[in-house]
Amino acid sequence: MIRARALEKRYGDKRILRGIDLDVGPDDFLLVTGPNGSGKTTLLRLCAGLAAPTRGDFELGVSRGRIGYVAHEPLVYRELTALENLDLYGRLYRISERRERIGMLLERFGLWDARHERVASYSRGMLQRLALCRAFLHEPDLLLLDEPYSGLDDEGALVLDRELTERAPRTAFVVATHEPERLRRHATDLLALA
Amino acid sequence: MNYLADVGALARKDLLLELRARDTLPAMLLFVVSALVVFHFVLPAGSSDLAATGLLWVALLFTALLGLSRAFAAEREQGVIDGLVLAPSDRSAIWLGKALSILAFLALAELIALPAFALFFRHIDGTLVGGVALADVGIAAVGTLLAAMAAASRARELLLPLLFLPLAIPIVVGGVGASVADDPARYLGLLGLYDALFAIICWASFEYVVTE
Fold it and tell me: With contact defined as beta carbons under 8 Å apart, do B179 and A17 qualify?
């Protein structure tokens, strides 16, 4: 699904990534760890096709419509409600039975009661839950998660644990995290960036 | 059909955002009316209609610039542009949806601006309205692309006018010409040609603006 050889990424004079080799298959779960500024987010943006490598070979064997991406930002409009945001993405991803799927995800992530509230009024944890709903909405084949537990309370973290357990056998994952222990049981490979 | 559905969903989202936040259209309305009031007092009594028409175009152009500077504010502030770019829909649909919403804002601002111009300066006729309508299409097409480019830059407030104003010169030439010339068809044709040419260029190049 993802194959990279000697991957390098620079922004101006600053080298963010160097000599990265990656192989991610359809049911692999790659954990990416490293200190702040080590290039975890940049690597995920490369995998999403949102950034281009400066050097090296990179092949992405999945169309962008089959990628689910959770970034630092929730990638939702603050002045729209959760329902309106997910409906917009549902239309763009041409999801059949969109309303049912959105309702099911909002229910599962505990946002159903707040579905008509503008996202601007959401807490950090609720935003993260909404970001996860957005990323899971189209049942992606490749999930790129950047600090997925960030902002989640214990209940939210448990819901995410359940989702990952359910999806891990049939979805490829690349997860950047500072909490590798929490995800170790799913991991098929580990990439430690320096 | 899917493409048009995407464009419709994106344009409707922009109109809904504006309805909720009200941070672009009221500013455009206030600016264009204020500018026309200032111009009314700046122009000496007995000034020609030609001068007044020129000032109308100055007011419209800078009102458009004000709207364009906010065009990608929501996408930039929330990082939503990454989410839209990742969607499987054709990326040019993002440009077209945004251009249509800009066009709607311009049309609404001009619904107030043109009667105000008629009140302060001179009567408005069909060719002036036609010129403004054609100019709006060009402004929305080019302005949306440049607003997306500027949004990716840290110096976006500086960059947008620097990019937009030189490219808007043919719009001003065509618009003023259509408003005052004895043969407005030539200038309306220029505006139509500009619209068609730049709409195609912007439609085809938007993808490269929003991706690295």
Answer: no
The span from the CA of A192 to the CA of A5, in Å, is 16
User: H or E segment at B88?
Assistant: none
Evaluate whether ipTM surpasses 0.90.
Answer: yes
Report whether A192 contacts A180 (CB < 8 A). no
- What is the distance of C-alpha A28 from the center of its chain? 15
pTM, 2 dp: 0.93
Residues B97 and B9: beta-carbon distance below 8 Å: yes
Q: Report the residue of chain A nearest B6, measured CA to CA.
A: A92
Instruction: Give B9 to chain A, closest Cα distance, Å.
Output: 7
Three-state DSSP state, A152? coil
Identity of residue B86: L
3-state secondary structure of B122: coil
DSSP code for B44 = P
The residue type found at A12 is G
Torsion of CA A185, A187, A189, A193, to 10 degrees: -100
| Bridging pattern class, strands A29-33 and A172-176 | parallel
Residue A65: CB atoms within 10 A of its CB come to 15
Q: Which of A81, A89, A91 to mutate to test the interface with B (most CBs of B within 10 A)?
A: A91
How far is it, in rounded angstroms, from Cα B158 to Cα A154? Answer: 45
> For strand A189-192 and strand A172-176, is the pairing parallel, antiparallel, or unpaired?
unpaired
Nearest-CB residue to A77 (from B5, B78, B211): B78
- What φ, ψ does residue A78 adopt, rounded to 5°? -70, -30
Q: What local confidence, expressed as pLDDT, does residue A19 receive?
A: 92
CB burial of A160-190 (b: ≥16 within 10 Å; e: otherwise) equals bbebbeebbeebbbbbbbeeeebbeebbeee
User: CA–CA separation, B97 vs B151, rounded Å?
Assistant: 17
Tens-digit pLDDT profile for chain B (212 aa)? 799 999 999 999 999 999 999 989 999 999 999 999 999 999 888 888 889 999 999 999 999 999 999 999 999 888 899 999 999 999 999 999 999 999 999 999 999 999 999 999 988 999 999 999 999 999 999 999 999 999 988 888 899 999 999 999 999 999 999 998 889 999 999 999 999 999 999 999 999 999 87
Indicate the residue of A69, A77, A89 with minimum beta-carbon distance to B74: A77
Helix axes B92-120, B126-151, angle to 10 degrees: 140
